[in-house]
Design a protein that fits this description.
Layout lengths: L2 H25 L14 H23 L17 H20 L2 H13 L7 H22 L11
Helix pairs in contact: 1-2, 3-4, 4-5
Length: about 160
């Protein structure tokens, strides 16, 4: 990785840490409560702290990456991966639409499949298996354990 790539990782880590710390700080103004009686600020504070710690780890990991010294390594190609952006932004949009008109199962499956399509190294078989597994997990968690009132398939 070039020094520009490491610098970008430092900036990304710092950005994530600042966002996490800010979220923890803002949400600490709400009642936090205890583990057995959580207040409205408990979950956002925990997520903010975890995000801040993750940002620090991202920045620390950037310093551990060796830089290639061989001139055979060309400069890192930095550019916009339009396919990734479209898939990652499109997945939740498709989920929202399909959850409303088709139900949770097709919405979840399609959203995961579309998001997986953003990875250029993913195969169709792996993406379908990932979508099926995530859909099964999501249905068990949200519909049967958490009792979220959303039809698995509309019309049933």
């Amino acid at each position: 990785m070039s020094s520009a790539g490491r610098r970008t990782d430092y900036y990304a880590g710092a950005f994530v840490a600042v966002i996490g710390a800010g979220a923890a700080l803002i949400s600490s103004q709400y009642r936090i409560g205890t583990l057995t009686s959580m207040g409205p600020g408990f979950f956002p504070v925990v997520l903010g702290v975890l995000l801040a710690v993750m940002g620090v780890f991202i920045a620390m990991a950037a310093s551990d990456v060796p830089t290639p010294t061989s001139p055979a390594h060309g400069p890192d190609k930095v550019g916009w991966d339009v396919r990734g952006w479209v898939c990652i932004i499109g997945a939740p949009m498709v989920f929202i639409f399909l959850a409303e008109y088709a139900g949770f199962l097709p919405a979840c499956f399609a959203a995961v499949l579309i998001a997986a399509a953003g990875d250029r190294t993913a195969t169709v078989k792996a993406s379908v298996l990932l979508a099926a597994g995530m859909t099964a997990f999501a249905i068990i968690l949200f519909v049967y354990i958490l009792h979220i009132e959303i039809p698995i398939i509309r019309g049933f």
